[in-house]
Design brief:
There is one protein chain. The protein is an alpha+beta fold and 343 residues long. The chain folds into two domains: 6-152, Aminotransferase class 4, branched-chain amino acid transferase, N-terminal domain (D-amino Acid Aminotransferase, Chain A, domain 1, 2-Layer Sandwich); 163-309, Alpha-Beta Barrel (D-amino Acid Aminotransferase, Chain A, domain 2). The chain contains seven helices and 18 strands. The strands form two sheets. Strands 1, 2, 3, 4, 5, 6, 7, 8 and 18 form a nine-stranded antiparallel β-sheet that branches. Strands 9, 10, 11, 12, 13, 14, 15, 16 and 17 form a nine-stranded mixed β-sheet that branches. A hairpin with a 3-residue loop joins strand 15 and strand 16. Helix 2 packs across helix 3 (95-108) and helix 6 crosses helix 7. The longest helix has 14 residues, at 74-87. The protein binds pyridoxal-5'-phosphate (PLP) and 2-OXO-4-methylpentanoic acid (COI). Pyridoxal-5'-phosphate binds at residues 58, 219, 222-224, 242, 244-247, 281-282.
Length: 343
């Protein structure tokens, strides 16, 4: 295993040994290549650089207490990438190819999978870029698909601790019928300013309301939102939020734990009624929410009573993590077990 300070990893980038790639030209995908090269040779007029023809994904692999390595819900990431491809007029990567590449890149970089005890994971970042040189605004003819990996620690400093967010009414992340529900680069560039302002004001992140009416909750920075009340898991239903695989998993776990699940419009005022709330995503897992401020209206929604994660968030978090680690049974076929022995 590599000499890395596994317990103090950030959500950043550490080089690993290999990445895997394939290329699309003349209507066909090439064979899969394994490379040690971290650079992509790219034409300065490539469509991804000018017109944002870029799609990406994010998923994790874990070294588990039984010594096995598990990748979490990779077929779902493959399907979401396909939906982004359709929206951005890019060629789709089949689920089979996506999964083959994901398994291969994890195996090739086995020594970079953090030990179980560290709580860290190997993050897989698939990305698809349009590479045809052309200054005309049109879909590229050639594409490259790459999956690289990097070991990561918690997305938020302090890991599973309650954070504060701020509603940023003057910025939208995505338009109702725009690209918010797809995982494409432009959505993130468009969120950087609101994120910067929120961080500078001491918040963990920015909180978006729906762009049309500014009434309903959309997303919590680059994560989905859920609230808990009356034994119910409530999460927004909106065309401009990314369909989070973590959120989908937590909804199932919530049902299994005997909670009700509601996916519907969540008006801002309802924040005052939640007993617990969290931001969820692959990177953050669950990041419990302490308080949400609406500075424009001079309102503060204090969700956590004692500044700590609540019991239902904790139970959801533990169950979700235990499924990822193979400690609890994988009832829904979410995990892919890889046969990799310790290096
Ligand atoms: N929302 C946004 C904007 C994201 O970028 C992500 C991260 O992927 C999520 C939500 C969470 O999605 P998932 O749980 O599939 O990682
Ligand atoms: C997540 O995986 O939860 C994210 O928010 C993705 C982000 C790092 C782009």
């Amino acid at each position: 295993m590599e000499k890395i300070d596994w317990n103090n990893l950030k959500f950043g980038y550490i080089p690993t040994d290999y990445n895997v790639r394939c290329h699309y030209a003349n209507g066909e995908w090439s064979d899969i290549e394994e490379t040690r090269d971290e650079m992509i040779p790219i034409h300065m007029a490539a469509s991804c650089l000018h017109y944002g023809q870029e799609a990406f994904e994010g998923l994790k692999a874990f070294r588990c207490p039984d010594g096995k390595v598990r990748i979490f819900r990779m077929e779902d990431n493959a399907k979401r990438l396909q939906s982004t491809c359709r929206a951005l007029v890019m060629p789709e990567i089949s689920t089979e190819r996506f999964c083959e590449m994901a398994k291969r890149v994890v195996k090739l970089n086995a020594k970079f999978i953090p030990p179980y005890e560290s709580g860290a994971a190997l993050y897989l970042r698939p990305l698809l870029i349009g590479t045809t040189p052309d200054v005309g605004v049109k879909p590229a003819k050639e594409y490259s698909f790459i999956i690289f990996v990097t070991p990561v620690g918690p997305y938020f400093k302090g890991g599973f601790a309650a954070n504060n967010y701020v509603i940023m009414r003057q910025y939208d992340r995505a338009a109702p019928l725009g690209t918010g529900r797809y995982k494409c680069a432009g959505n993130y560039a468009g969120s950087l300013l609101a994120g910067k302002i929120a961080h500078e004001a001491g918040y963990a992140g920015e909180f978006y309301l729906d762009a049309k009416e500014k009434k309903y909750i959309d997303e919590c920075g680059a994560a989905n939102f859920f609230g808990i009340k009356n034994n119910t898991y409530v999460t927004p239903n909106s065309l401009s939020i990314l369909p989070s695989i973590t959120n989908k998993s937590l909804q199932q776990i919530a049902l299994d734990l005997g909670l009700k699940v509601e996916q519907r419009e969540v008006p801002e005022e309802e924040l005052a009624t939640f007993e617990e709330a969290g931001a969820c995503g692959t990177a953050a897992v669950i990041s419990p929410i302490n308080r949400i401020d609406d500075m424009e209206r001079g309102l503060s929604y204090q969700i956590s009573k004692d500044g700590k994660p609540g019991p239902i968030c904790k139970k959801l978090y533990d169950t979700y993590r235990n499924i990822q680690y193979g400690i609890e049974p994988d009832r829904y076929g979410w995990v892919t077990v890889l046969d990799i022995t310790e290096e």
